[in-house]
Amino acid sequence: MVEVVSVTSRIAYDCDVLVVGGGIVGLSSAYAITRAAPGTRVTVLEKEPGPARHQTGRNSGVIHSGVYYRPGSLKARYAVRGAAEMVKFCAEYGIAHAVTGKLIVATRRDELPRLHALVQRGRENGIPVRELGAPQIAEYEPEVRGLAAIHVGTTGVCDFVGVARQLAHASGAEIRYGSRVVQVDRRPELGVAVRTARGDVIRARVLVNCAGLHCDEVARLTGDDPEMRIVPFRGEYFALARPELVRGLVYPVPDPAFPFLGVHLTRGIDGGVHVGPNAVPALAREGYGWGVVRPRETAGTLAWPGAWRMARQHWRYGAGELRRSASKRAFTTAVRRLLPAVTPDDLVPSTAGVRAQAVLRDGTLVDDFLIKEGPRTVHVLNAPSPAATASLPIGREVARRALAVLD
Predict the structure, then answer these.
(1) Backbone φ and ψ of 192, nearest 5°
(2) pLDDT (tens digit, 9 = 90+) per residue, 338-397?
(3) CB neighbours of 161 closer than 8 A, spacing ≥ 6?
(4) What is the structure's pLDDT at 10?
(5) Residue 80, class by beta-carbon neighbours within 10 Å (0-12 exposed, 13-18 middle, 19+ buried)?
(6) What is the mean pLDDT of residues 283-305?
(7) Between helices 24-36 and 391-406, what is the axis angle to 10°?
């Protein structure tokens, strides 16, 4: 009798699942894997010296209700579920949070049909929504003006960086900071071997790609074609010098043609009020200011046909965003639609963020979370806002797919 020995038995795997990316989605995935399958060895590689340094740590800290998103979409389902779970998670671990509710305010007559459509969408998504006339707006926000509004009670704010740290700790995963992935050798019959910029090699049975701003690049390193590219959009924020003008969260009625929510007012857990963001093309994946330019990354964006098609389709919208970026007075004008008392002197430049927006070859801005699989790989390819809110359900979905490969 001839003994057959599996080649996989001779491989010394360093872990079962290797997660690339230490933002809130990557850490939630690691947490979900070890919760669903205790004993599974998980390693997380993060190129920064700590967790949540990019999209997670540079957003407005809002726990979104899910009122905006198409019923049945991943964003709708995961945001509604994730908001409740995020509040519970924060309460369980003593992470700063508050359920404040928010106003979505129509300031022009042509916005009223869209505001009514949001009421219907919210109800379809199972979200309690209260409709307000102009006089009732002052009950919530005395300084805000509008023709009508809706109040969404399940919206809140929290410390997403604190959530990410707790997920890292509670997952029991090995977290390797300062570990930028530069090479991936995937063997469908065996697994993956990843080399970092420091020269470390990590072997795993499955790779989970949660690299955010660099997720398409990591996908290509594995040999998978993501069929999209990340086009980075910088969101520029101001802090309100007179935070007493705003009690909670105030949003405009969004344009349904875009995945951006418009310039809004957010009272954070620290008591300060952030104003913004606008959305302008960034000249680097981590281009947090106009002075940050990485020619190779910019050339990569310009070489993607979808970037040009998107620009042709939406140039008017983009021109308005650029004008507000270049002119503080123009930005102030946009804010005064909601908050007439604000002046340019009230707006103090604050930290910017960059949104990792997936764009298809035909110029379509991907409007839902996008998760794809390849041999021995799971790729999270579009997870901008409300991904922080939805991170716990997203993590479970990623874990389900990764563990199916292990099984």
Answers:
(1) -130, 145
(2) 999 999 999 999 999 999 999 999 999 999 999 999 999 999 999 999 999 999 999 999
(3) 51, 52, 56, 57
(4) 67
(5) buried
(6) 96
(7) 50
DSSP 76-138: HHHHHHHHHHHHHHHHHHT--EEE--EEEEE-SGGGHHHHHHHHHHHHHTT--EEEEEHHHHH
> What is d(CA 353, CA 289) in angstroms, rounded to the nearest whole number?
9
CA 407 to chain centre: 30
Query: How is residue 145 written in tokens?
Result: 């003006």
- Report the distance separating Cα 82 and Cα 178, nearest Å: 29
The Cα-based distances of 378 to 187, 192, 209, 215, 268 in angstroms read 14, 12, 6, 11, 34
Angle among Cα 362, 366, 368 to the nearest 5 degrees reads: 155
Q: Tokens standing for 332?
A: 């102030």
Any alpha helices (H) in 225-291, and if so which ranges? none
Which residue shows structure tokens 């079962």? 16
The two tokens of residue 78 are 């995961």
pTM flag (> 0.85): yes
- Other CB atoms within a 10 A radius of the CB of residue 40 amount to 21
By the 8 A CB rule, do 59 and 388 touch?
yes
Arithmetic mean of pLDDT, 233-249: 96
Could you report the per-residue pLDDT of 92-105, keeping only the tens digit for each?
Answer: 999 999 999 999 99
Nearest to 137 by CA among 276, 339, 277: 339
Task: Find the angle CA(106)-CA(108)-CA(110) to the nearest 5 degrees.
Answer: 100
The stretch 172-193 carries a mean pLDDT of: 97
- Cα–Cα distance for residue pair 231/242, rounded to 1 Å: 34
Nearest C-alpha neighbor of 168 from the set 327, 46, 252, 281: 46
